[in-house]
Design a protein that fits this description.
Strand order of the largest sheet: 1-2-3-4-5-6
Order of helices and strands: EEEHEHHEHEEEEEEEHEEH
Largest sheet: 6 strands, mixed
CATH topology: Metallo-beta-lactamase, Chain A
Number of helices: 6
Structural class: alpha/beta
Distance between the termini: 32 Å
Radius of gyration: 16 Å
CATH class: Alpha Beta
Shape: globular
Number of strands: 14
Bound molecules: zinc ion
CATH architecture: 4-Layer Sandwich
CATH superfamily: Ribonuclease Z/Hydroxyacylglutathione hydrolase-like
Oligomer: single chain
Length: 208
């Protein structure tokens, strides 16, 4: 089992590649996926599927190119499709390019298995209405997208963002995970449940 990170695209979004048994998941290809494709090829790993934590342009720029290059399917929450009618979904903000349109299958909260690993998918709305967290108990790791960062939280001032929901998602879904669980965010360094419970200023003084 291995987790690789490739910061991709104009906002250096963390694109994660999870590998198990010569199969891989790609989470949030936020830019040109050439490095990811090369890595998969060189390590003899087959891509299984592409997962999106949420549909913001900086997490999905590489969706279509990666799907096209590999023939694999993109999975995203149906609750975020509404964002594709906004600039923060389809891109074009700050003079940045627009996202190449892509097709996806729906994915929602529940227990499943990917590449031979148990995965618990949590609906963690707030940053976007359809934000998902992918928790892999065997890896002691949760991919949280832009829900929570080291010592910070995701923005909620974009269309359909909701601060109250975000705080609830973190408290109910993230802070109830085992303390040692590593949190891999859409931007910046790795952190953990324990670290954020104790040091995240947005939750300081909170009764958990
Ligand atoms: Zn985002």
């Amino acid at each position: 089992m291995e987790i690789r990170v490739f910061p991709l695209g104009p906002l250096e979004t963390n694109c994660y590649v999870v590998v198990n048994d010569k199969k891989a998941l790609v989470i949030d290809p936020g830019g040109d996926p050439a490095q990811v494709i090369q890595y998969l090829k060189h390590s003899g790993v087959e891509l299984d599927r592409i997962l999106n934590t949420h549909l913001h342009f900086d997490h999905i720029y590489g969706n279509q190119p990666l799907a096209e290059a590999t023939g694999k399917t993109i999975y995203a929450s149906p609750d975020d499709l509404i964002l594709m009618d906004t600039e923060v979904g389809r891109g074009g903000m700050m003079g940045l390019p627009t996202v190449t349109p892509f097709e996806n299958e729906d994915i929602t909260e529940g227990d499943t298995e990917f590449i031979g690993l148990e995965c618990k998918i949590f609906a963690t709305p707030g940053h976007t209405p359809g934000s998902l967290t992918f928790y892999f108990p065997e890896l002691k790791t949760a991919f949280v997208g832009d829900l929570i960062f080291r010592r910070s939280i995701g923005r909620t001032d974009f269309p359909y963002g909701n601060t109250e929901q975000l705080m609830q998602s973190v408290k109910q879904k993230i802070f109830s995970l085992p303390e040692e669980t590593e949190l891999l965010s859409g931007h910046g360094p790795v952190t953990s449940v324990n670290e954020e419970k104790n040091h995240n200023p947005f939750f300081s003084g909170m009764q958990i």
